[in-house]
Amino acid sequence: MANHRTLILLLFTALVGCFASADSAPTAAKPAAQELTPPSELALMMRAMAIHADSVKAAVKRDGELPPYPKAFKNLLEAEPTKGMHIDPITFPTFGKDYQLKLDRLYKVKKGERTQAYNALVQSCANCHGTHCPGPLMRIKKMYVATE
Ligand code: HEC
Predict the structure, then answer these.
(1) Is 103 close to ligand 1, i.e. is its CB under 6 Å away?
(2) How many angstroms separate the CA atoms of 23 and 21, rounded?
(3) C-beta of 39 in contact with ligand 1 (< 6 A)
(4) Ligand 1 centre and the CA of 113: distance in Å?
(5) pTM above threshold 0.70
(6) What is the pLDDT of residue 4?
(7) Cα dihedral: 49, 53, 54, 58 (round 10)
(8) In this predicted model, what pLDDT tens digit does every residue of 65-77 receive, in sequence order?
(9) DSSP one-letter string for 1-55
(10) Is the minimum distance from the CB of 118 to ligand 1 under 6 angstroms?
(11) Which ligand 1 atom is the nearest neighbour of the CA of 77?
């Protein structure tokens, strides 16, 4: 289980870092070079946020229980970003609080409204990534649950 998770994390990192190119597959050498510097507190939180969203998606699809409420994401606005990364003083906190509101809402709504609440959460990821760190946008766009 632990190994499996590590592998997923590695694959994940290779595919979705901030500087992942949107239109070409990453080469084997590129992600390795990126990993020479340890990921920032914010980057690690993002990976956890993406894993959390994926497990919410799985739960929503099979109408099961949500994963435990992720209290750690309360520190989103305080987490240390990658050195040299520009964090906009207006849009980052605005989109960050919106994500937190959508997260709280997801845990409050009735089961029947979860798909919509989950998609609103994914939208809040996409909104922030429109102005910060565009690399993961392709992946984020695939995270929505189709509604009929
Ligand atoms: C408030 C803005 C904001 C929100 C909301 C946000 N992100 Fe991010 N995301 C960032 C920034 C900024 C970085 C770059 C962090 C760094 O390198 O320190 C990042 C990095 C990432 C990364 C790359 C992490 C790595 O390994 O380097 C992924 C994947 C990611 N975000 C996915 C998501 C997902 C999925 C969501 C929603 C569940 C989300 N983000 C919500 C701003 C945001």
Answers:
(1) no
(2) 6
(3) yes
(4) 25
(5) yes
(6) 59
(7) 150
(8) 999 999 999 999 9
(9) -HHHHHHHHHHHHHHHSTT--SSSPPPSHHHHHHTTSPPPHHHHHHHHHHHHHHH
(10) no
(11) 1
Residue labelled with tokens 């914010």: 42
Q: Give the ligand 1 atom nearest the CA of 132.
A: 12
120 in Cβ contact with 127 (< 8 Å): no
Q: Encoding tokens for residue 120? A: 């609103």
Is the model's pLDDT at 42 over the cut of 60? yes
pLDDT in tens, 115-134: 999 999 999 999 999 999 99
Task: Give the mutation target among 66, 133, 140 for probing the ligand 1 site: most ligand atoms within 8 A of CB.
Answer: 133
107, 62 in Cβ contact below 8 A?
A: no
Return the structure tokens found at 34: 């990126």
Looking at ligand 1, which atom is closest to the CA of residue 76? Answer: 1
Q: Is the pLDDT of residue 88 over 90?
A: yes
Q: Dump pLDDT digits (tens) for 6-39.
A: 545 544 554 567 876 545 444 445 555 556 789 9
